[in-house]
Amino acid sequence: MQVGDLRSSSTGTLQPSHTHHQQHLGESLEHQQEQQQQHRQQQQLSELAATARAGHVDHLVRCDHQVGGHKPEEGKGKPLFQQGAFVFKPLPVGDPRSFHELLFYERIFDLKTPSTPGTAAIAHEMPLPRSEDVQELRLLVPKFAGVVLADDDSVEDLTKGNNSYLKMEDTSASFRKPCIADIKMGIQTWGENASESKIAKEREKYPPQQTLGFRVVGMKVYNATTDVFQPYGRKFGLGLDESTVAQGCRTYLSTDGGASIQREVLQLILVKLRAILSWFERQRSFRFYGSSLLLTYEGAAQAGAPPAVDVRMIDFAHVFPIVASDNGSLGRDDGYIHGLTTLIRVLEQL
Ligand SMILES: Nc1ncnc2c1ncn2[C@@H]1O[C@H](COP(=O)(O)OP(=O)(O)OP(=O)(O)O)[C@@H](O)[C@H]1O
Ligand SMILES: O=P(O)(O)O[C@@H]1[C@H](O)[C@H](O)[C@@H](OP(=O)(O)O)[C@H](OP(=O)(O)O)[C@H]1O
């Protein structure tokens, strides 16, 4: 907090000043406020521990099939962890995005709402969705297993309130050689409450998002000939545009280094994408910004057996309720629908 901010301080007694004495006063107030904030976070964390439905967990290991999202090696926070058939997504106390995502899962899985102090404070931001929308949506997202606290995180993580996680189904768990693509959907990738600078940053990041309505965030493809996974990172996706995105999709669908594509997998993915599109055309509860579709198929399918394919919606840090217009009608998520329609068309033409 800047000294100049003191004028608006809730104490109402301090005025901005440039004298040393008052500057010290400002600094100590700042320190006090920091301590109070830390204390509040600690309190939230222990309340979270008390309310966490799925309890504690230890021996988490770094997820070995994360293709997008926060990665420390890219200077972007804490990554995804895994254990058994679950993944664990960090829920840093104090980050409104993560509590927003938790609130979304609570609304979808009809858990006692609100379940944590973090979501209680923002419950008004996401009114209960229409039940007919939610029933089907539950099948389109990873199953949610609650909030857990990791027992074996570092003391530093504990004091920063960083050891809680969203526990959810690992959509790759049943695959031997999962080939994965994370595709960020929609024309708009920022939330309805985004600042001007966030909007500018997002617009600049990937202009084809406006026309395509999607962006390949990252992929991982198994090469059955060499028995090696090939990763495709952020740069790969940002390098695709309207004229090259089809080639990017071919790369995802080839397990022989590009010689051919998995036609059966492609057809099954299309079936699932059309089902998601059909839901979007009917639902009137949510608009999804910066949310992804996570595509997975088996890279080492048994000959003769139908290939396993999974398509799921993930990453709900910026989901907003659709509110009724003046005449009481509810709109649709046109940005997501545009992206899905384009993606389906690109895949149909491969
Ligand atoms: N339920 C899941 N099962 C398997 N893998 C998952 C699951 N959820 C996420 N992942 C993996 O983790 C990556 C990041 O997930 P997610 O987009 O939710 O994280 P994030 O850090 O919020 O991302 P962003 O920085 O784009 O907001 C995905 O690209 C995917 O590879
Ligand atoms: O995928 P990229 O290109 O790495 O970009 C990040 C991605 O779009 C995240 O979804 C976003 O977080 P939000 O979902 O919160 O917008 C983050 O914004 P940030 O810079 O504000 O963290 C971006 O940097």
Automatic annotation (TrEMBL):
A Gene Ontology biological process in which this protein takes part is: inositol phosphate biosynthetic process
Provide ranges: composition bias, Low complexity.
34-46
Using the record for this protein, list the coiled-coil segments as residue ranges, or answer none. Answer: none
A GO CC annotation recorded here is: cytoplasm
EC numbers: 2.7.-.-
One Pfam family in the UniProt entry: IPK
Alphabetical keyword list: ATP-binding, Kinase, Nucleotide-binding, Transferase
Q: Catalyses which reaction?
A: 1D-myo-inositol 1,3,4,6-tetrakisphosphate + ATP = 1D-myo-inositol 1,3,4,5,6-pentakisphosphate + ADP + H(+); 1D-myo-inositol 1,4,5-trisphosphate + 2 ATP = 1D-myo-inositol 1,3,4,5,6-pentakisphosphate + 2 ADP + 2 H(+)
Which top-level group of life is the source organism from? Eukaryota
Q: Could you say which enzyme class this protein belongs to?
A: transferase
- Region Disordered: which residues? 1-46
The similarity comment for this entry is: Belongs to the inositol phosphokinase (IPK) family.
Kindly provide the name given to this protein in its UniProt entry.
Answer: Kinase
Taxonomic lineage per UniProt?
Eukaryota, Filasterea, Capsaspora
